[in-house]
Design a protein that fits this description.
The chain contains 16 helices and no strands. With 439 residues, the protein is mainly alpha-helical. Helix 1 runs parallel beside helix 5 and helix 1 runs antiparallel to helix 6. The longest helix is centred in the N-terminal third of the chain and has 30 residues.
Length: 439
Protein backbone atom coordinates (compact mmCIF):
# COMPACT_ATOMS: atom_id res chain seq x y z
CA UNK A 1 0.00 0.00 0.00
CA UNK A 2 1.75 3.18 1.17
CA UNK A 3 4.08 4.37 3.86
CA UNK A 4 5.55 7.56 5.25
CA UNK A 5 7.97 8.02 2.32
CA UNK A 6 7.61 10.36 -0.68
CA UNK A 7 4.61 10.16 -2.96
CA UNK A 8 6.68 8.77 -5.85
CA UNK A 9 7.07 5.53 -3.85
CA UNK A 10 3.31 5.15 -3.44
CA UNK A 11 2.51 2.44 -6.01
CA UNK A 12 -1.24 2.51 -5.44
CA UNK A 13 -1.44 6.25 -5.96
CA UNK A 14 0.64 5.94 -9.14
CA UNK A 15 -1.84 3.40 -10.53
CA UNK A 16 -4.72 5.62 -9.48
CA UNK A 17 -3.14 8.69 -11.10
CA UNK A 18 -2.39 6.93 -14.38
CA UNK A 19 -5.92 5.52 -14.48
CA UNK A 20 -7.34 8.97 -13.88
CA UNK A 21 -5.10 10.40 -16.59
CA UNK A 22 -6.43 7.91 -19.13
CA UNK A 23 -10.02 8.63 -18.04
CA UNK A 24 -9.52 12.42 -18.21
CA UNK A 25 -7.99 12.17 -21.67
CA UNK A 26 -10.93 10.10 -22.86
CA UNK A 27 -13.38 12.69 -21.54
CA UNK A 28 -11.53 15.49 -23.37
CA UNK A 29 -11.56 13.50 -26.60
CA UNK A 30 -15.34 13.17 -26.40
CA UNK A 31 -15.87 16.91 -25.87
CA UNK A 32 -14.44 17.64 -29.32
CA UNK A 33 -15.18 14.41 -31.22
CA UNK A 34 -18.93 14.35 -30.56
CA UNK A 35 -19.83 17.70 -32.14
CA UNK A 36 -17.42 17.08 -35.03
CA UNK A 37 -19.06 13.74 -35.77
CA UNK A 38 -22.59 15.17 -35.58
CA UNK A 39 -21.68 17.89 -38.06
CA UNK A 40 -19.86 15.41 -40.33
CA UNK A 41 -23.01 13.27 -40.45
CA UNK A 42 -25.03 16.27 -41.63
CA UNK A 43 -26.39 17.33 -38.27
CA UNK A 44 -27.13 20.92 -37.29
CA UNK A 45 -25.21 23.02 -34.75
CA UNK A 46 -28.24 22.71 -32.46
CA UNK A 47 -27.97 18.92 -32.61
CA UNK A 48 -24.24 19.15 -31.87
CA UNK A 49 -25.04 21.29 -28.85
CA UNK A 50 -27.72 18.82 -27.82
CA UNK A 51 -25.06 16.14 -27.34
CA UNK A 52 -23.19 18.29 -24.82
CA UNK A 53 -26.44 19.28 -23.12
CA UNK A 54 -27.53 15.65 -22.80
CA UNK A 55 -24.26 14.70 -21.15
CA UNK A 56 -24.40 17.71 -18.80
CA UNK A 57 -28.00 17.02 -17.78
CA UNK A 58 -27.17 13.37 -17.08
CA UNK A 59 -24.20 14.37 -14.90
CA UNK A 60 -26.31 16.88 -12.98
CA UNK A 61 -29.31 14.60 -12.40
CA UNK A 62 -27.16 11.64 -11.32
CA UNK A 63 -24.71 13.59 -9.16
CA UNK A 64 -26.47 13.33 -5.77
CA UNK A 65 -27.60 9.68 -6.18
CA UNK A 66 -24.03 8.88 -7.19
CA UNK A 67 -22.83 10.30 -3.88
CA UNK A 68 -25.05 7.84 -2.04
CA UNK A 69 -23.53 4.93 -3.97
CA UNK A 70 -20.02 6.16 -3.18
CA UNK A 71 -20.82 6.19 0.54
CA UNK A 72 -22.27 2.66 0.50
CA UNK A 73 -20.34 0.57 -2.02
CA UNK A 74 -16.74 -0.33 -2.81
CA UNK A 75 -15.34 2.73 -4.60
CA UNK A 76 -12.84 0.71 -6.62
CA UNK A 77 -15.65 -1.40 -8.08
CA UNK A 78 -17.67 1.72 -8.80
CA UNK A 79 -14.78 3.26 -10.74
CA UNK A 80 -14.11 0.07 -12.67
CA UNK A 81 -17.80 -0.37 -13.45
CA UNK A 82 -18.09 3.24 -14.59
CA UNK A 83 -15.08 2.86 -16.87
CA UNK A 84 -16.39 -0.37 -18.39
CA UNK A 85 -19.79 1.17 -19.03
CA UNK A 86 -18.20 4.18 -20.73
CA UNK A 87 -15.87 1.96 -22.76
CA UNK A 88 -18.83 -0.12 -23.96
CA UNK A 89 -20.89 2.95 -24.83
CA UNK A 90 -18.08 4.69 -26.75
CA UNK A 91 -17.03 1.44 -28.43
CA UNK A 92 -20.55 1.00 -29.77
CA UNK A 93 -20.08 4.01 -32.05
CA UNK A 94 -17.38 2.45 -34.30
CA UNK A 95 -19.24 -0.88 -34.19
CA UNK A 96 -22.40 0.84 -35.44
CA UNK A 97 -20.72 1.16 -38.84
CA UNK A 98 -21.43 -2.55 -39.35
CA UNK A 99 -25.16 -1.78 -39.16
CA UNK A 100 -25.19 1.37 -41.27
CA UNK A 101 -24.74 3.84 -38.41
CA UNK A 102 -24.10 5.67 -36.30
CA UNK A 103 -27.27 7.75 -36.16
CA UNK A 104 -27.95 10.85 -34.08
CA UNK A 105 -30.22 9.14 -31.48
CA UNK A 106 -27.47 6.57 -30.91
CA UNK A 107 -24.92 9.34 -30.30
CA UNK A 108 -27.27 11.11 -27.92
CA UNK A 109 -27.81 7.94 -25.88
CA UNK A 110 -24.06 7.34 -25.72
CA UNK A 111 -23.46 10.89 -24.49
CA UNK A 112 -26.11 10.51 -21.78
CA UNK A 113 -24.71 7.14 -20.66
CA UNK A 114 -21.17 8.51 -20.57
CA UNK A 115 -22.31 11.50 -18.53
CA UNK A 116 -24.22 9.35 -16.04
CA UNK A 117 -21.31 6.92 -15.60
CA UNK A 118 -18.91 9.82 -15.21
CA UNK A 119 -21.05 11.23 -12.41
CA UNK A 120 -20.34 8.02 -10.47
CA UNK A 121 -16.66 7.83 -11.37
CA UNK A 122 -15.69 11.34 -10.25
CA UNK A 123 -16.89 11.25 -6.60
CA UNK A 124 -15.59 7.68 -6.27
CA UNK A 125 -12.15 8.85 -7.37
CA UNK A 126 -12.23 11.94 -5.16
CA UNK A 127 -13.25 9.94 -2.09
CA UNK A 128 -10.52 7.35 -2.74
CA UNK A 129 -7.63 9.80 -2.39
CA UNK A 130 -7.88 9.80 1.40
CA UNK A 131 -7.35 6.02 1.39
CA UNK A 132 -4.41 6.11 -1.01
CA UNK A 133 -2.12 8.70 0.57
CA UNK A 134 -0.97 9.53 4.09
CA UNK A 135 -1.70 13.09 5.31
CA UNK A 136 1.71 14.56 4.52
CA UNK A 137 1.41 13.31 0.91
CA UNK A 138 -1.97 14.94 0.30
CA UNK A 139 -0.74 18.29 -1.00
CA UNK A 140 1.59 16.60 -3.49
CA UNK A 141 -1.24 14.27 -4.54
CA UNK A 142 -3.61 17.18 -5.14
CA UNK A 143 -0.93 19.06 -7.09
CA UNK A 144 -0.32 16.08 -9.35
CA UNK A 145 -4.04 15.69 -9.87
CA UNK A 146 -4.30 19.34 -10.90
CA UNK A 147 -1.42 18.90 -13.35
CA UNK A 148 -3.11 15.80 -14.79
CA UNK A 149 -6.43 17.56 -15.32
CA UNK A 150 -4.82 20.64 -16.87
CA UNK A 151 -2.61 18.59 -19.18
CA UNK A 152 -5.59 16.54 -20.39
CA UNK A 153 -7.60 19.70 -21.02
CA UNK A 154 -4.71 21.19 -23.00
CA UNK A 155 -3.74 18.10 -25.03
CA UNK A 156 -7.10 16.31 -25.38
CA UNK A 157 -8.87 18.68 -27.80
CA UNK A 158 -5.83 18.90 -30.11
CA UNK A 159 -5.43 15.11 -30.06
CA UNK A 160 -9.14 14.64 -30.79
CA UNK A 161 -8.93 16.95 -33.80
CA UNK A 162 -5.90 15.12 -35.17
CA UNK A 163 -7.46 11.69 -34.66
CA UNK A 164 -10.63 12.90 -36.39
CA UNK A 165 -8.59 13.78 -39.48
CA UNK A 166 -7.41 10.15 -39.66
CA UNK A 167 -10.99 8.89 -39.57
CA UNK A 168 -14.05 10.34 -37.92
CA UNK A 169 -14.56 7.22 -35.77
CA UNK A 170 -10.97 6.88 -34.57
CA UNK A 171 -11.39 9.28 -31.59
CA UNK A 172 -14.22 7.13 -30.23
CA UNK A 173 -12.18 3.94 -30.55
CA UNK A 174 -9.27 5.60 -28.71
CA UNK A 175 -11.70 7.01 -26.15
CA UNK A 176 -13.11 3.53 -25.42
CA UNK A 177 -9.57 2.14 -25.08
CA UNK A 178 -8.67 4.92 -22.62
CA UNK A 179 -11.47 3.81 -20.31
CA UNK A 180 -10.35 0.19 -20.54
CA UNK A 181 -6.81 1.26 -19.57
CA UNK A 182 -8.23 3.20 -16.63
CA UNK A 183 -10.25 0.18 -15.45
CA UNK A 184 -7.20 -2.08 -15.68
CA UNK A 185 -4.98 0.28 -13.67
CA UNK A 186 -7.58 0.94 -10.99
CA UNK A 187 -8.24 -2.77 -10.69
CA UNK A 188 -4.60 -3.27 -9.71
CA UNK A 189 -4.86 -0.97 -6.68
CA UNK A 190 -4.18 -3.11 -3.62
CA UNK A 191 -5.57 -0.75 -0.96
CA UNK A 192 -9.14 -1.26 0.19
CA UNK A 193 -11.41 1.52 -1.05
CA UNK A 194 -14.52 0.35 0.78
CA UNK A 195 -16.26 2.96 2.97
CA UNK A 196 -15.63 2.62 6.69
CA UNK A 197 -18.29 0.78 8.72
CA UNK A 198 -20.45 2.92 11.02
CA UNK A 199 -18.64 4.13 14.14
CA UNK A 200 -19.80 2.71 17.49
CA UNK A 201 -22.18 4.89 19.46
CA UNK A 202 -21.81 5.72 23.14
CA UNK A 203 -23.57 2.47 24.16
CA UNK A 204 -21.07 0.36 22.18
CA UNK A 205 -23.47 -0.43 19.32
CA UNK A 206 -22.82 0.51 15.72
CA UNK A 207 -24.44 3.82 14.87
CA UNK A 208 -27.04 3.67 12.11
CA UNK A 209 -25.56 5.28 8.97
CA UNK A 210 -27.32 8.34 7.57
CA UNK A 211 -28.60 7.10 4.22
CA UNK A 212 -30.52 10.23 3.25
CA UNK A 213 -29.83 11.69 -0.17
CA UNK A 214 -29.60 15.14 1.40
CA UNK A 215 -27.18 14.16 4.18
CA UNK A 216 -24.15 15.50 2.32
CA UNK A 217 -25.84 18.81 1.56
CA UNK A 218 -26.91 19.18 5.21
CA UNK A 219 -23.39 18.53 6.47
CA UNK A 220 -21.86 20.80 3.84
CA UNK A 221 -24.15 23.74 4.64
CA UNK A 222 -23.48 23.38 8.37
CA UNK A 223 -19.69 23.86 8.04
CA UNK A 224 -18.79 27.46 7.37
CA UNK A 225 -15.14 27.14 6.32
CA UNK A 226 -15.78 24.48 3.70
CA UNK A 227 -18.97 26.16 2.53
CA UNK A 228 -17.15 29.47 2.09
CA UNK A 229 -14.20 27.96 0.21
CA UNK A 230 -16.42 26.02 -2.18
CA UNK A 231 -18.65 29.04 -2.80
CA UNK A 232 -15.57 31.12 -3.57
CA UNK A 233 -14.34 28.39 -5.90
CA UNK A 234 -17.70 28.50 -7.67
CA UNK A 235 -17.33 32.25 -8.20
CA UNK A 236 -13.79 31.76 -9.52
CA UNK A 237 -15.05 29.12 -11.96
CA UNK A 238 -17.86 31.43 -13.07
CA UNK A 239 -15.34 34.23 -13.62
CA UNK A 240 -13.05 31.88 -15.56
CA UNK A 241 -15.63 30.62 -18.07
CA UNK A 242 -17.10 34.11 -18.45
CA UNK A 243 -13.69 35.60 -19.18
CA UNK A 244 -12.92 33.11 -21.93
CA UNK A 245 -16.20 33.87 -23.69
CA UNK A 246 -15.78 37.62 -23.33
CA UNK A 247 -12.17 37.52 -24.57
CA UNK A 248 -13.18 35.55 -27.67
CA UNK A 249 -16.09 37.90 -28.47
CA UNK A 250 -13.96 40.98 -27.80
CA UNK A 251 -11.09 39.76 -29.98
CA UNK A 252 -13.50 38.95 -32.80
CA UNK A 253 -15.18 42.36 -32.49
CA UNK A 254 -11.80 44.11 -32.71
CA UNK A 255 -10.94 42.25 -35.92
CA UNK A 256 -8.31 39.82 -34.65
CA UNK A 257 -7.78 36.69 -36.73
CA UNK A 258 -9.02 33.22 -35.80
CA UNK A 259 -5.41 32.20 -35.25
CA UNK A 260 -4.89 35.01 -32.76
CA UNK A 261 -8.10 34.09 -30.95
CA UNK A 262 -7.01 30.46 -30.77
CA UNK A 263 -3.67 31.50 -29.28
CA UNK A 264 -5.47 33.63 -26.68
CA UNK A 265 -7.53 30.65 -25.56
CA UNK A 266 -4.39 28.48 -25.57
CA UNK A 267 -2.84 30.94 -23.10
CA UNK A 268 -5.51 29.89 -20.62
CA UNK A 269 -4.48 26.25 -20.87
CA UNK A 270 -0.78 27.04 -20.72
CA UNK A 271 -1.24 29.22 -17.65
CA UNK A 272 -3.41 26.63 -15.89
CA UNK A 273 -0.91 23.85 -16.56
CA UNK A 274 2.00 26.05 -15.47
CA UNK A 275 0.12 26.90 -12.29
CA UNK A 276 -0.38 23.24 -11.50
CA UNK A 277 3.35 22.63 -11.89
CA UNK A 278 4.19 25.62 -9.65
CA UNK A 279 1.57 24.94 -6.99
CA UNK A 280 3.85 23.17 -4.51
CA UNK A 281 6.34 26.05 -4.58
CA UNK A 282 3.59 28.65 -4.23
CA UNK A 283 1.95 26.88 -1.30
CA UNK A 284 5.28 26.69 0.52
CA UNK A 285 5.54 30.48 0.36
CA UNK A 286 1.95 31.66 0.68
CA UNK A 287 -0.64 31.12 3.39
CA UNK A 288 -4.19 30.18 2.45
CA UNK A 289 -5.52 33.76 2.92
CA UNK A 290 -2.65 35.07 0.78
CA UNK A 291 -3.43 32.59 -2.01
CA UNK A 292 -7.09 33.61 -2.24
CA UNK A 293 -6.40 37.33 -1.76
CA UNK A 294 -3.71 37.28 -4.46
CA UNK A 295 -6.00 35.44 -6.86
CA UNK A 296 -8.87 37.86 -6.26
CA UNK A 297 -6.60 40.89 -6.67
CA UNK A 298 -5.07 39.44 -9.84
CA UNK A 299 -8.49 39.03 -11.42
CA UNK A 300 -9.46 42.61 -10.54
CA UNK A 301 -6.24 43.98 -12.07
CA UNK A 302 -6.77 41.81 -15.16
CA UNK A 303 -10.25 43.16 -15.78
CA UNK A 304 -9.15 46.76 -15.27
CA UNK A 305 -6.39 46.25 -17.86
CA UNK A 306 -8.93 44.74 -20.27
CA UNK A 307 -10.94 47.96 -19.99
CA UNK A 308 -8.00 49.84 -21.48
CA UNK A 309 -6.76 47.44 -24.16
CA UNK A 310 -7.70 44.44 -26.27
CA UNK A 311 -4.24 43.84 -27.69
CA UNK A 312 -3.49 40.09 -27.88
CA UNK A 313 0.08 40.82 -26.78
CA UNK A 314 -1.30 42.13 -23.49
CA UNK A 315 -4.40 39.96 -23.07
CA UNK A 316 -2.64 36.63 -23.71
CA UNK A 317 0.19 36.92 -21.17
CA UNK A 318 -2.17 38.42 -18.61
CA UNK A 319 -4.59 35.50 -18.99
CA UNK A 320 -1.75 33.01 -18.62
CA UNK A 321 -0.55 34.77 -15.46
CA UNK A 322 -3.89 34.92 -13.70
CA UNK A 323 -4.67 31.29 -14.56
CA UNK A 324 -1.39 30.26 -12.92
CA UNK A 325 -2.97 31.30 -9.61
CA UNK A 326 -6.12 29.20 -10.02
CA UNK A 327 -4.37 25.87 -9.40
CA UNK A 328 -3.17 26.62 -5.82
CA UNK A 329 -6.68 27.72 -4.83
CA UNK A 330 -8.15 24.55 -6.34
CA UNK A 331 -5.69 22.42 -4.35
CA UNK A 332 -6.59 24.20 -1.10
CA UNK A 333 -10.31 23.70 -1.70
CA UNK A 334 -9.82 20.06 -2.64
CA UNK A 335 -7.75 19.36 0.48
CA UNK A 336 -10.32 21.00 2.73
CA UNK A 337 -13.04 18.91 1.11
CA UNK A 338 -11.21 15.59 1.38
CA UNK A 339 -9.91 16.09 4.94
CA UNK A 340 -12.93 17.88 6.34
CA UNK A 341 -15.81 15.61 5.36
CA UNK A 342 -16.55 12.51 7.45
CA UNK A 343 -15.78 9.20 5.75
CA UNK A 344 -19.39 7.99 5.77
CA UNK A 345 -20.55 11.17 4.00
CA UNK A 346 -17.56 11.86 1.78
CA UNK A 347 -19.26 10.86 -1.47
CA UNK A 348 -22.37 12.93 -0.80
CA UNK A 349 -20.39 15.93 0.48
CA UNK A 350 -18.14 15.98 -2.60
CA UNK A 351 -21.13 15.77 -4.94
CA UNK A 352 -22.93 18.52 -3.01
CA UNK A 353 -19.85 20.72 -3.30
CA UNK A 354 -19.53 19.90 -6.99
CA UNK A 355 -23.10 21.04 -7.59
CA UNK A 356 -22.08 24.51 -6.38
CA UNK A 357 -18.64 24.49 -8.01
CA UNK A 358 -20.00 23.50 -11.43
CA UNK A 359 -23.61 24.67 -11.23
CA UNK A 360 -22.79 28.33 -10.59
CA UNK A 361 -20.31 28.58 -13.51
CA UNK A 362 -22.96 27.17 -15.86
CA UNK A 363 -24.68 30.56 -15.60
CA UNK A 364 -21.51 32.43 -16.55
CA UNK A 365 -21.64 32.31 -20.37
CA UNK A 366 -25.34 33.20 -20.45
CA UNK A 367 -25.00 36.14 -18.05
CA UNK A 368 -21.84 37.36 -19.76
CA UNK A 369 -23.49 37.20 -23.16
CA UNK A 370 -26.41 39.29 -21.85
CA UNK A 371 -24.00 41.85 -20.35
CA UNK A 372 -21.97 42.11 -23.55
CA UNK A 373 -25.13 42.63 -25.59
CA UNK A 374 -26.70 45.21 -23.29
CA UNK A 375 -23.94 47.25 -21.62
CA UNK A 376 -20.84 46.59 -23.74
CA UNK A 377 -17.36 45.28 -23.10
CA UNK A 378 -15.98 47.81 -20.62
CA UNK A 379 -19.03 47.60 -18.37
CA UNK A 380 -18.83 43.80 -18.50
CA UNK A 381 -15.18 43.84 -17.41
CA UNK A 382 -16.05 46.21 -14.55
CA UNK A 383 -18.98 44.01 -13.49
CA UNK A 384 -16.72 40.94 -13.37
CA UNK A 385 -14.11 42.92 -11.40
CA UNK A 386 -16.76 44.00 -8.90
CA UNK A 387 -18.02 40.42 -8.53
CA UNK A 388 -14.64 38.90 -7.71
CA UNK A 389 -13.63 41.83 -5.50
CA UNK A 390 -16.86 41.54 -3.49
CA UNK A 391 -16.54 37.77 -3.14
CA UNK A 392 -12.93 38.07 -1.96
CA UNK A 393 -13.77 40.73 0.65
CA UNK A 394 -16.73 38.73 1.98
CA UNK A 395 -14.82 35.45 2.20
CA UNK A 396 -11.46 36.73 3.47
CA UNK A 397 -12.39 36.70 7.21
CA UNK A 398 -13.19 32.99 6.91
CA UNK A 399 -10.01 32.31 4.93
CA UNK A 400 -7.96 33.81 7.79
CA UNK A 401 -9.06 30.95 10.05
CA UNK A 402 -7.60 28.25 7.79
CA UNK A 403 -4.54 26.25 8.82
CA UNK A 404 -1.19 25.86 7.04
CA UNK A 405 -1.19 25.22 3.30
CA UNK A 406 1.30 22.32 3.50
CA UNK A 407 1.90 19.42 5.85
CA UNK A 408 5.23 18.66 7.41
CA UNK A 409 6.74 15.35 6.35
CA UNK A 410 7.30 12.91 9.18
CA UNK A 411 10.79 13.18 10.62
CA UNK A 412 13.03 10.39 11.83
CA UNK A 413 11.90 8.44 14.84
CA UNK A 414 13.16 10.01 18.08
CA UNK A 415 15.89 8.26 20.06
CA UNK A 416 14.18 6.56 22.99
CA UNK A 417 15.05 8.00 26.37
CA UNK A 418 16.45 5.73 29.09
CA UNK A 419 13.72 3.85 30.90
CA UNK A 420 13.21 5.49 34.30
CA UNK A 421 12.94 3.57 37.48
CA UNK A 422 9.41 2.57 38.53
CA UNK A 423 7.59 5.46 40.11
CA UNK A 424 4.40 5.85 42.06
CA UNK A 425 1.06 5.84 40.24
CA UNK A 426 0.87 9.07 38.17
CA UNK A 427 -1.87 11.49 38.96
CA UNK A 428 -4.77 12.28 36.59
CA UNK A 429 -3.04 15.24 34.96
CA UNK A 430 0.01 13.10 34.13
CA UNK A 431 -2.27 10.53 32.47
CA UNK A 432 -3.90 13.19 30.31
CA UNK A 433 -0.49 14.51 29.31
CA UNK A 434 0.64 11.01 28.32
CA UNK A 435 -2.49 10.46 26.27
CA UNK A 436 -1.91 13.71 24.44
CA UNK A 437 1.62 12.69 23.51
CA UNK A 438 0.43 9.27 22.42
CA UNK A 439 -2.16 10.71 20.11
Amino acid sequence: MFGPGPLRDNVDFRRYWLGQAASDLGTQLSLVAFPLLVLALGGTPAQAGGIATGSLVARTVCRLPAGVLVDRLDRKRLMIGSDLIRATALGSIPLAVLFGGPEYPHLLVVAVVEGAAGSVFWPSAAASVRRLVVPHQLTAAMVRSQARVRAAALLGPALAGWLFTLHRLVPFFVDACSYLVSALLIGRISASLRPDPPSPSTDGKAAAPDRRLSAGIRWFLAHRELRTMVAYGGVINLISVSTVLAVVVSANRHGHSATAIGLLVACVGVGALGGALLTSALLRRLSAPAVFLTLGAAWVVTFLVFVGTSSPWVVGPLLATVYVLTAPSAVLIGKQLILGAPENLLGRVTTAADLLMSGLPALGPLLTGILLSTVGFNATWLALAALIAGATVVCLPTFRTLGPTTEAAPGPAPIPAPTPAPSPEPDLEDRHDALRHTR
